[in-house]
Specification:
Length: 310
């Protein structure tokens, strides 16, 4: 039996997967709101190198011994490929946080269910049905409304998270279809390690080229290595620990149920991100963006309902 067939034969434990995703959304919505503090004092690549390659791996190293039996890799190539794809998706997402709010970046990332359905349909033969297709398109319309309430202000750069959504969809499919026999610990460790290595490589290139980065968040994408101040170091550490827990919850959710069903549950990140932005920064989103969020959530519910087991 192939890995894909084995994944298809396992039952979908939607209640457990839903609980894991909600906890993931609450945590991610909070910690990602502080990326703006990090963007003011360092660059994307140094942030990711410190977050993934240093702080997070030190924590994982401290926990690795008691969980060593769960760190055995079954399919190294599949694990590495998934880690690279998910790292690319997260680089795109975090990079967009330099000029978008968390809710906007998350809205772009949440085109992932559309790509999950397309990949699942054409690569693995998963049935999707016309209602779920229409719901996905409605959700995409909601994404556009959140990204730019005024269509005239919609810039090409605002669609950057959509590219991340396509990569994120592939990583989510890979979690169940390629890495069904891997433990959540293996997938979490591999993702954090690969992301740190890739970020360090880009940081080394920036150090050699030494481009002149604009001050503040405007230089987030091209800023080379520097020595960040205490607030940046603190929130990087919070990001490392928080994302480690959140990614583990997300990975577990995708192992508990089919990717096309779990992916729509991640829409709950949107209201939690907006709620945290209001609580922390006093940001209030406009009525068009609220309507867009409602459309996204309604589309997600419709997709999940139509995709439930008979």
């Amino acid at each position: 039996m192939t890995t894909a067939a084995a994944a298809a034969d396992r039952p979908n434990r939607m209640m457990a997967a839903s609980g894991a995703i909600v906890l993931y959304a609450v945590l991610i919505g909070y910690i990602d709101n502080y990326v703006r503090v990090i963007a003011e004092g360092t660059g994307l690549w140094q942030f990711q190198a410190m977050r993934s390659g240093l702080v997070a791996m030190v924590v994982l190293g401290a926990l690795a011994l008691p969980f060593a039996p769960r760190l055995r890799v079954v399919a190294p190539r599949a694990v590495l490929a998934r880690a690279v794809v998910q790292s690319a998706a997260m680089f795109t997402y975090f990079g967009s946080l330099g000029f978008l709010s968390v809710a906007q970046a998350a809205a772009g990332l949440f085109t992932a269910p559309i790509f999950v359905m397309l990949i699942g349909r054409f690569a693995y033969g998963h049935a999707i049905g016309p209602v779920r297709v229409l719901a996905a398109l409605a959700g995409f319309a909601g994404v556009v409304m959140v990204l730019s309430p005024d269509p005239a202000d919609l810039q090409p750069a605002m669609l950057l998270p959509v590219a991340g959504g396509a990569l994120y969809a592939l990583a989510n499919i890979a979690t169940r279809e390629w890495c069904a026999r891997e433990s959540a610990a293996v997938l979490t460790v591999s993702y954090m390690l690969v992301m740190g290595v890739l970020a360090a490589a880009v940081l080394a290139v920036l150090w050699l080229l030494a481009p002149e980065a604009p001050p503040g968040a405007a230089g987030f994408l091209i800023r080379g290595p520097n020595w960040p101040e205490a607030p940046v170091l603190f929130w990087t550490a919070v990001q490392a620990i928080g994302s480690l827990i959140a990614v583990g919850l997300m990975v577990r959710a995708y192992q508990l149920a089919e990717a096309s069903r779990v992916a729509v549950l991640e829409y709950v990140v949107l209201p939690f991100s907006a709620l945290w932005a209001w609580a922390i920064w006093g940001e209030v989103i406009g009525p068009v963006a609220v309507l867009g969020m409602g459309l996204i959530v309604a589309a997600g519910v419709a997709m999940a309902w139509r995709g439930r087991p008979a």
